[in-house]
Amino acid sequence: MDALERRVRLRMRADFPHYAAKLLKIRTKAGAIDPFVINRAQSYLHLRAEAQRARIGKVRLIVVKGRQQGISTYWQGRTYWRVTHSFGTQAYILTHEQTATDNLFSMTSRFHDHMSPLFKPHTGASNAKELAFDRLDSGYSVATAGSKGVGRSKTIQMFHGSEVAYWPNAKDHLAGVMQAIPDEPGTEVLLESTGNGPGDVFHSMWQMATSGGSDYEAVFIPWFWQPEYQHPASELLMDDADEEYQRAWSLTNEQMMWRARKIVELGGDQDLFRKEYPANPQEAFAASADESFIKPESVQIARSASVDASGPRLLGVDPARFGKDLTALCERQGRVVKTPELFAKRDTMEVAGLVKQRLDAGIDVAFIDVVGVGAGVVDRLREMGYADRIIAVNAGDAALDDTKYSNKRAEMYGVLRDWLKEQPACLPDDDAMQADLCSARYSYTSKSQYKLESKDDLKKRLGRSPDRADALALTFAQPVAPKRVDLSAFVKPQVRRQGSWMS
After folding, report:
1. Which of 66, 183, 257, 481 could make an S-S bridge to 223, C-beta 3.0–4.6 Å?
2. How far apart are the first and last CA of the chain?
3. Domain that holds residue 280
């Protein structure tokens, strides 16, 4: 091997996008066999995978995406790259149906069949379910979700779970396969799917990932990243909701025209479009987009806004009540919200200390949820002399506007929702914050009041508490008047001279 070949091989081993473009062949949507040049969605997933591998030595990703965005193609290419460049690496692919299994394995076979002889490993076993590289002691195997015992007897270094939300017996499959993957450096797991509504095991794993409660990182791929998802817009007609959607995601008229045509193809069902081609994770999992009390579009607009902060500095404090809940602190000043702070397993005195630090640092008023341990936090802060700067909030109390809201919690979220609609408003550019804000559903009482889904029901459905949103909502518990500015320091003392006031 000469110096040039060594440099080429090292580049191919280290740089997957370069390797893919030079050596891998894919079948395009038009049916042509072309080099694999990764698109925006694939590039984003590659950066996330490489960053995680550099940080913790392994890859654990859970991906929510729309239809036909190339995520499976990327992972199959990445897996072939890893398997053919290492010894003793076994890859396993599990899909929701046989057709998908066949398609993914044929993709890998195409990579291998079209591989340059210089980089093509020696092939041992090769059949419809297995591709082995005997001299590397590495290879692939594939299966379709069905039998509960599938994958249990293997040792796997690279795993691709495709359309996990649609697996039969998904919980059993995941339990079995995960036990076959060593928790070791170099191992990689990708679980990807379009959403299939809330409450299933894939949704639960996504919720755990977004809350930081697992080793998995949550990755969302919006439909409009696909360059081909656009259509000439000469006949585009939009209503107010369409215009809000376009503004929220900064879409072109051509993208909106593609969306309009796709909705027609789906029988005019906009909820089905949101599920199949989500713009955010909430759309992917929502049973109906209309159920969310705070709409994703208004949150998304606020995530990209730039506003100057002014007025009193307010702090919402949602103390952890038990177990897995987190204490959340969220600061808002006028139209600007700072990134919430989360703390695990803090007792009453510790939470009181956290609030004290922020009051001493310039917070004007702290709103504290007194349900559960919050009452103790309020009592301690009063003892320390902060009674005039803290407000105890009970979400079950009557609303100030009890003709519109069923209780204080519904009112706080309602005022927050109206605040977001009155753009500009500035929120942190944070997926977890958006997930919390858009999680609560609503209904109406017999008196036509807004009634928010109870926190216990919400936690049961999500598998977590929307702590960030609850902390922010507390800052809307009641109005706070702007501080009066003392101007005396800027005025010279007045002196009486010859019957007139002289300054």
Report:
1. 66
2. 91
3. 225-287
